[in-house]
Description:
This protein has 535 residues and is an alpha/beta fold. 49% of the residues lie in helices and 13% in strands. The protein has 4 domains: 9-145, Resolvase, N-terminal catalytic domain (Rossmann fold, 3-Layer(aba) Sandwich); 169-286, Hect, E3 ligase catalytic domain fold, CATH 3.90.1750; 294-350 and 447-530, no CATH class; 374-438. The strands form 5 sheets. Strands 2-1-3-4 form a 4-stranded parallel beta sheet, with helices on both faces. Strands 9-13-14 form a 3-stranded mixed beta sheet, with helices on one face. Strand 13 and strand 14 (485-488) form a beta hairpin. It is elongated and about 110 Å long. Bound molecules: zinc ion (ZN).
Amino acid sequence: MKKTNEILNVILYCRVSSDEQAEGCSLDEQERQLRSFCARNGYNIVDVYYEDYSAKYYDMNRPEMKKIYDYCRKHRAKVNKILFLRWDRYSRNVEFAFAYKRKFYDELGVELNTIESPIDFKGTEWPTMMAIYCGVAHTEDVKISRRTKDGIHGTLLKGRWPNKAPRGYKNVNNGDRDKYVAIDEPKAKLVRYAFEEVAKGTKTPTLVWREVQKKGLKVSESSFFEMLRNHFYCGEVYVPEYLDEPAQYVKGIHEPLVTKETFMKVQNRLNSVNPRNRSKEKQMRAKVVKLPHEDYYFYPFLLCPVCGSKICASHSKGRSQTYAYYHCNHCKKYRVPAQQMNDDILNYIRQIRPCKAVLDLYEEVLNDIRTEKFKGINKEKNRIQEDVKKVEVRLQRLQDRFLDGEISSEDYKDIRQRYNDEIYALKSQLEIMKTPNSGVVEPQMAYAMSFINNIERCLSMVDMSVRMDVLGSIFNGKMVFENGKCRTAQFNPIIPILIGREAFFNNSGVPVNTETPLLYPEPGSNRHRCYPTGV
Ligand SMILES: [Zn+2]
């Protein structure tokens, strides 16, 4: 026991936290008041500790508090009290308050107390007093956190985005009353481009990712995939589940970068590769298309005429310049200058120009389909509306079953989310159908036709990735070329039809008639067996 005339040694503890408002509670102010209190009472200040740590957690990780504890343990009986301004400076967590009281007071004999409302730890009322003081601070903290969450939820429900704007947008801040999310050019242009390219479905998302990266959009591959899944870009705001309200999407007040239609196309594209299977998405990502060099871009479609293996291509140094060659690394008996080969192949491709009559017919059929489509669209709308009603009824029933205690709250939440997702998907479909001109075919048709008709010139004009896509859509398998003639080639089954010369092709689309201007092996001939087709 200390005698009353003995000088008390105290440690001052000041605490702030970035998640609390520090009204009149800055570290300086706390220290000033504590020092003046000690001066009035004649206490000896051993040390002052400043903590910047939230007091709402029940953890033992407060670095300064730990140092004080270590100091007190090493210097037993050298410290009598740890003083702070108010109880909320000590703890906003009742559990922590009692645990540390035990550690300091019961184990080490060091008293924890405030100067504003000190507790008498020698009396019997201290547990009630400490529970009240720290409990009030605790409650205050819970309230603040609830208010913040309420605020965020309310903001989201109004379609406002309170967080950092996603890529392609920026946060505009003109004071508290005028905060919003605006489109951020030129990044937005790249994001829009990415969505549109993926929606078209001609390139893999990974390829599109590489393109926008080259064009200056800084984004990792996984973030790119997340971006494509973010509803924000089609003008929606995601409101997560909160208290009893399920998660939902609401119409945002920001300007969308892409139409709902484009967005849904992108989702379908991602889903088609990824039917609830993330590993497949990974596979898709891993499948990076390495584009061939301009000088020998046909090599992925060629087989060696000597041994039937896949062909390689590379540059070789000549006396004055480098030349590109196609060659076989397998038998090493095949090597041709790439330039000449490219010309031969282009000559060949030029001959598969579709005949006019077939093209006209094709256009007519497409038009028919489109007219039918418009007739069917109302039917389809009705069907979807029926489906929405059905799911809504199910949802109602689910709620009844939950209220009757037939299903657990976890199951209820799961199923409810699934139903809500279903309803969301159906309603999105309806919305797209309402958009006029959503099924315009003409411009695409016109483009496709002019492309097919001028395929040779177009090939030389477009990107290598598109070139590969076009060639890939013409040839199903690989070609064997020799002496400027194509010996075998396996086409997309649509090509013979387009050319209007079905007679020259057999069932699997391999040209069979040697009377055509092109040289094809006859079925059953030795040559045919030697050079496998369609590998
Ligand atoms: Zn070979």
